[in-house]
Fold each of these.
Amino acid sequence: MIDWTTVILILAGVVGGIVNAVAGGATLITFPALLATGLPPVAANIANAIAVSPGHLLAVLADRPSLPVFDRHLYLLLLLSAVGGLAGAGLLLIIPDRLFTLPIPALIAGATLLFALAPRVGKAADRSASTDNGAKRREAGLLALTAIYGGFFGAGLGIILTAILSLSEPHDIRRIKAVKNLLASVVAVAANLFFLLRGAVHWPSAFPMLLGAIVGGYAGGHLVRVLPANVVRGVVLTAGSVMSIVYAFKYWI
């Protein structure tokens, strides 16, 4: 007998992996899919974090030459990312389910908006540059808050990090993206290790989606050459908008 829940999770992972490779925004596909299988919201969020986490790490490995020299400031950002990821994961596990479900529509809507603005964020990052100490301090402070958000929910994390890094990085957008992927990977690893040590991962849901996301990411690496990013972006934006409305009715009305 076919386990349709597993099939749905694998397919959602494949689609999410392709979406991440081509345009980004997999969580807007994968998180609602986990909720649709009946998984409680916090458990779905944790399973989603495990499933989509390889994306940034694979991007780091693929674009290692773009990483800057590891100096004191970058080590500070890495430390803040790890601590923030742990703090966000810890917060997720201690708050009541109701306090997590209440902002879900807003979180999905916010992530959808960030995804819609992503091209403008990239252009702004390409235009802005400042290496003064004030900019670096602002960058570190904003990163600490963003890392907590990343450990707690994480949708749109890469877009937020891109905007923050534009405060002090040079005009090399490729370098900004490489550091963004590195910091997002550290946030994800820290949060996921915490979830694993606490035994909070629902593996019957997380593992099939993880497998699907790996397959989808590999396929997306090839499809990115032929599949129009605007088409994928349109699908993700539509899905995010619909899910925002659906969950607003479910949790707010």
Amino acid sequence: MQRLIIVSLTWLSCLNWLSPAQAAETTTEAPPRGALYEVSDGRHTLLLFGTIHVGAPDFYPLEPRLRQALAAAPVLALELDPQNAAAMQEAAQRHGLYPPGQHLLDQLAPPLRQRTMATLQRLGLPEQGVQNLRPWMLALALTVQEYARHGYQSALAVDSHLAANVRAHGGQILELESAERQMRLFSQLSDAQQAQFLDDTLKELQDSHLNRRIDTLVDAWRHADSAGLASALRELQEDDSFTSRFTLKNLLQDRNPGLATGIAALLRRQDKAVAGIGILHLSGPDSVPALLAKQGLQVRQLY
């Protein structure tokens, strides 16, 4: 289930190992993507969009209703501002890298060290290039790399696309979280848990069904397939691996209340804002839309 992390953490775009790319925006009609909700407090209205933190050229353009909302939005709320690279790099150095003199492979038990070295060799990645990464950071970097092999690029991430559209007319970007907070979720893992996180990832990279699973998850977003997204969440809930449990509790459930609080606060002070958060935050009984409805707000799914 490591692959599902890609829809939860915006700062993964800073791990992009590809050349920067730009998605062409046109006036072409386009089908719905992800999921879109309308949230209202009786005075103000906000659109809540489910994003995915990678992208491909055929993700764009987004459908007209969302494009029009972005073109007029005074504020766009995202988990993180994609242009806040300095904060992302600072947090990555503080939480994701070993201090001088410590090296990744030296910290791993021999069986995991051998599997890690074999995976790096298979992917054509030099050991020296990842020696300063902590196990969880290497696991996420390998996840991003696997998505890249399928043509899904961090440089075309949906969050970045939304931000570019709002910045084009002078709109404000509001961060609902911080890179520091997101990365701290991982750095609080014990050494043994970090090793398990990496081990789970290596096993999944060897899974013959991974290609299908990646395409299934992204295609569910691409076609606004609510049933497919619910199935992905259900699969996560049914998987008893450490990584799946960590993803479900720490990366989704525990973050949803804070995301909902930030979106509700924005709605109460600003009309016609747009919020974009990872798509799996919008699915399930403890999702952000469900939490907003519990606050007495009117929540309606548009697609």
Amino acid sequence: MKFETFKQQQLQDPAVKAEYDLLTPQYELIRQIIKLRQEQHLTQKALAEKTGIAQSAISRFESGNHNPSLEFLRRLALGLGKSVYVELR
């Protein structure tokens, strides 16, 4: 079974869908950071050197195992030549 098929089946369960929706913004942010880092041909180590953030912390963030502070995100953004914009909806 393909992952997308499995995912769609699981999302039919309201409890799974609610949890998935809750985590979507976090994982979208992670995808954006990884994409920017790769587009700039930066390794996690190189980004760590630019930001002063430990490479292990960047790795934990990118794997979804770290709940970042706004300051952490600001430093990552600056290291990638970007800024952080927060919006409540």
